[in-house]
């Protein structure tokens, strides 16, 4: 009875310590997180900024990616029922990216690049089969967040709490480094153009053309290298997580204690 009790105590203590450390560490957000469906991910597989296309995943879900230097990306595919006609569900695809900040009280705020956000909304019973495609810009504020090892799936999970402190569905670490599009303005307008304008119509057109070609080449490389990226997909499963390391360390420590007590 002594061995299982001590092993359980050591394991719970170690996981609790690591969870607390992760909760207070902004770097714990680093990576691409996806909801339970495991079909929605940020990156070029969800949004093509050259042709401005949102690509519908096979199942609904949400995904967030975070870099270590303060950039985020969001991909959302939501389907909601129509109470008047169950055969006409409404669907929405949303893409955003930009900068994020973590306040001293733990609040997480996402500041999207205004001109880059996109939404595709479908309401088949009212739009005659023609979905609505629009720009989208919504600053998101999360009261807090926590990162910990999910005891069932055995992988890192991200729990976001909305502004009213209600929990969102948990997200699971899917890629690390994150799977993301370039962290810069992807579709600049005249007022958000970050490249110096020559002051002439021809010059402006040339600048815009150069930007488009440059963006096209970046996205093309992202698509071509999608399976060559340094981002590694996280395999779910108990033994795939670092919890195996905790158990091994706990058993080693317990063995040392029992040896000294003998």
UniProtKB/TrEMBL annotation:
Compartments where found:
Endoplasmic reticulum membrane
Q: What does this protein do?
A: Required for normal levels of the cell wall 1,6-beta-glucan. Involved in a protein folding machinery chaperoning proteins acting in various physiological processes including cell wall synthesis and lysis of autophagic bodies.
Which first-to-last residue range defines the signal peptide? 1-22
GO biological-process terms attached to the record? 'de novo' protein folding; budding cell apical bud growth; establishment or maintenance of actin cytoskeleton polarity; fungal-type cell wall biogenesis; protein folding in endoplasmic reticulum; protein N-linked glycosylation; protein O-linked glycosylation via mannose
InterPro entries given in the database record:
Rot1
UniProt keyword Transmembrane helix present: yes
What topology does it adopt in the membrane?
Answer: Single-pass type I membrane protein
Q: List, in alphabetical order, the Gene Ontology terms for molecular function in this entry.
A: unfolded protein binding
Q: Does the keyword Iron-sulfur apply?
A: no
Which GO CC annotations does the UniProt entry carry?
endoplasmic reticulum membrane
Q: What is its main location?
A: endoplasmic reticulum
Gene coding for it: NDAI0I00640
Q: Pfam families attached here?
A: Rot1 (PF10681)
The family annotation for this protein states: Belongs to the ROT1 family.
Q: Which organism is it from?
A: Naumovozyma dairenensis (strain ATCC 10597 / BCRC 20456 / CBS 421 / NBRC 0211 / NRRL Y-12639) (Saccharomyces dairenensis)
- What protein name is recorded for this chain? Protein ROT1
Which keywords label this protein? Endoplasmic reticulum, Membrane, Signal, Transmembrane, Transmembrane helix
**Stretches that traverse the bilayer:** 243-261
């Amino acid at each position: 009875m002594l061995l299982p009790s001590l092993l359980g105590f050591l394991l719970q203590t170690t996981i609790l310590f690591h969870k607390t450390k992760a909760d207070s560490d902004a770097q714990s957000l680093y990576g691409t997180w996806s909801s339970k469906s495991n079909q929605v991910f940020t990156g070029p597989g969800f949004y093509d900024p050259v042709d401005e296309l949102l690509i519908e995943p096979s199942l609904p879900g949400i995904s967030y990616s975070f870099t270590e230097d303060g950039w985020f990306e969001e991909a959302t595919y939501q389907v909601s029922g129509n109470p008047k006609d169950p055969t006409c569900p409404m669907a929405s695809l949303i893409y955003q990216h930009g900068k994020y900040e973590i306040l001293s009280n733990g609040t997480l705020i996402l500041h999207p690049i205004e001109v880059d956000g996109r939404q595709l909304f479908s309401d088949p019973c009212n739009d005659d089969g023609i979905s609505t495609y629009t720009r989208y810009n919504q600053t998101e504020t999360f009261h807090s967040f926590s990162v910990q090892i999910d005891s069932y799936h055995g992988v890192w999970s991200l729990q976001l709490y909305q502004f009213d402190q209600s929990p969102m569905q948990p997200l699971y670490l899917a890629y690390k480094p994150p799977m993301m599009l370039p962290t810069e303005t992807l579709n600049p307008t005249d007022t958000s153009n970050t490249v110096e304008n020559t002051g002439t119509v021809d010059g402006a057109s040339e600048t815009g053309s150069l930007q488009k070609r440059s963006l096209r080449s970046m996205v093309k490389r992202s698509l071509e290298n999608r399976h060559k990226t340094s981002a590694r997909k996280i395999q779910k499963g108990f033994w795939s997580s670092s919890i195996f390391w905790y158990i091994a360390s706990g058993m080693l420590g317990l063995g040392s204690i029992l040896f000294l007590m003998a």
